[in-house]
From TrEMBL:
Xref: Pfam families: FtsX (PF02687)
Keyword annotations of the record: Cell membrane, Membrane, Transmembrane, Transmembrane helix
Topology versus the membrane: Multi-pass membrane protein
Domain ABC3 transporter permease C-terminal: 263-373, 723-828
Organism: Celeribacter baekdonensis B30
Name of the protein in question: ABC transporter permease
Amino acid sequence: MKLRLAWRIARRELRAGLRGFRVLLICLILGVAAIAAVTSVRESISLGLAREGAALLGGDAEMTFTYRFATQEERDWMGGRSVAVSEIADFRSMLSRKDERALTQVKAVDAAYPLIGTVGLRPDMPLAAALTGRDGVPGIVLDPMLSDRLGLTLGETVRLGDVAFVVMAELTREPDGASAGFTLGPRSIVAREALRNTALLSPGSLFDAAYRLKLAPQTDLDALKSRAEAEVAEGGFRWRDSRNGAPGVNRFVERLSSFLVLVGLAGLAVGGVGVSSAVRAYLDRKIASIATLKTLGADRATILMIYLLQVGVLTLLAIVGGLVLGALIPLIAAPFLQGILPVPMDTTVHAGPLFEAALYGLLSSAIFVLWPLALTEKIRPAALYRDAQFGLKGLPRWPYLLTVFVLIAVLVSAAVLFSDSARLVLWAGAGLALSFGALVLAGRGMAALARRLARLKALRGILPLRLALGSVGGPGGETISVVLSLGLGLTVLSAIGQIDTNLRGAIGRDLPDAAPSYYVVDIQKDQIDGVRNRLAEDPGVTRFETAPMLRGIITRINGQDAQTVAGPHWVLRGDRGITYAAQKPDNAEVTEGVWWPEGYEGPPQISFAADEAAEMGLKLGDEMTVNILGRDITGTITSLRNVDFSSAGMGFVLTMNPAALSGAPHTHIATIYATPEAETPLIRDLARAYPNITTIRVRDAIDRVSSILKSIAAATTLGAMATLVTGAVVLVGAAAAGEDRRRFEAAILKTLGASRNRILASFALRSLLLGAAAGLVAFGAGAIAAWAVIHFVMEAEFTLSLLSALWIVVGGISVTLITSLFFSWRAMLVRPARVLRSADG
């Protein structure tokens, strides 16, 4: 009976229109749409990667060996368990044309490549014909960027190392390009046979040999992987299969989308403030109606049910609208996204992401709506005659507060469940809660300070300022809602701005000062002395370092699988750089244990990076097995040392005694610190003397990383701007909700003789105070959040950006000022007599 009666009354009140609920609808639609769009794009990419996994990988499975080709026995094993096998060598090298050189990522392929998909060439021709070349010179196909960089035309001759190739075509489509991950140079493709017995692919050179397997239908990939790890090279290879054809892309999309979802949740929190304010403003106007219903015998449960049904219906409508918009955005943006993303997308409507967004919207709405609705039971019939103008006050009873906390816990749990990083969600949730609390305290503190300042004798002659302070500190004002709504949006934007500024500064400004000018790799053993002599004789070379260079996969720790012991640490993902040294390097600081004596030839010993050892739970005396060129080497950790990776110089996680690696083929690596004037002739001389070596300009690598960061920053800034737009909507709603109060206040002041300019000045000063408070708190909270990310996640030095801070504060003041003055001006246009007669009636 109560429910039927409550619904009847609620339905009649809804017929009066949506006045007062527009902010609720807009905030929820924006928040839900943002999350639905981000999660839908994530799902589209994930499903596209899963569907096209074999095409992206270039086969149903791939086994990759580091710095060596598979033995005949290993090839026989792969051939016996697959329909077809393709062998590919992937490495970096210098492509040269006369005295011009450019870094390229070379793919040397066999006749079976590609097992799945097709290569796109311009002019159109079969890949086999392009790689055959002409007049006995093998062919090469190049990324158009390489052709532009070196000014190449079809038919010209170029060199990789000391091998000549004729340019036959430009590469327009590489079917397995997305699986390659981050590369420092554009792609070029040559025939594997053309590089046979060259120094570019000699034992110990820096290359990966990948074997793509085309498998029979219904092959059990897990079983095949287990057999390979047990029967091939004692697991000394990297395995990938079609279930995760581009793991780097997938991991990047997951992390970025998780972050954007968190930004979206922050937007929902901002919108929640608007929802709460809208409901509170609506209920303030209904105080007389609620008091009348109570006078006629309605109990508090019925009253709560009436307005809960009204808000519930509108919330569901807003969520449905947000879901429709969030589902349409990816479909509309699909052509643009597919043009800039190197991965396929399954551009359909996905139920899972829409459910996730709906759940977030429903929970956040319930959290922010329940609070003002619960206050309706505090309204007494006496409100018909007094105190109605002050609106809803106080705290809800404890059952409502407990319900709110439970809903918050459910929302956080849902975010953890849907995200791939529980730690990120929990830290972000804690940061958002602290920011929320800081803004509430700032609002209350601002109100208390305003009340105190308004009573100062020194301000008695400044009427607009006293009026502004009285309004900020008075009861029933908009101080907390304005500071909260604007402050949360600015906090997210401030944090992203500080993170972006610090990352750009560290990579684009600070790193080049500390980093070497060039890396030189693939230096053969018989070339290292000549390279050292050339560098030592050059007055423009301020410093250089050289070291033996091997790569290996850490497979076991203390006899157990390494990832089982240490988890998915970055050191265990793929192969790592390894070196050997007879003496402790001058710049190495041993923190625990002792370095092996010079000339030591006993069981293998390992010096490991101290920070990484602590993260992996390693200690002195632990045994570690490293697979190098198919051979397992087990050593004991006898020392830990500090390794500084921040300078981009030479740093190895793992160093062994020379005798442990004496039988392994390897090359050397060098880092060169030189003046800009010395770089060009130095690199040209090295290239002429040793055509097989590869030189990597650090500035080019930094520019590639900076461009990626720029794209990430653009995506996150758009997310933050969406949050700020929601905050602006909330501000508009708060200002609109307070328009009646401003109109009444202006009418009283006009009647008492205040001029229009003074009244507008008081409104403007009120906005300046609230905007400044929100901006300052947002700047502080955003800076703390950015410091935590830079310090704990990025492990870099944090520098406060004052320019970013200035924009945040100025932005907060400007948005608040413009919004408030617009509605204040409207309030000023109404005649005082009309307002006062309405209030009296």
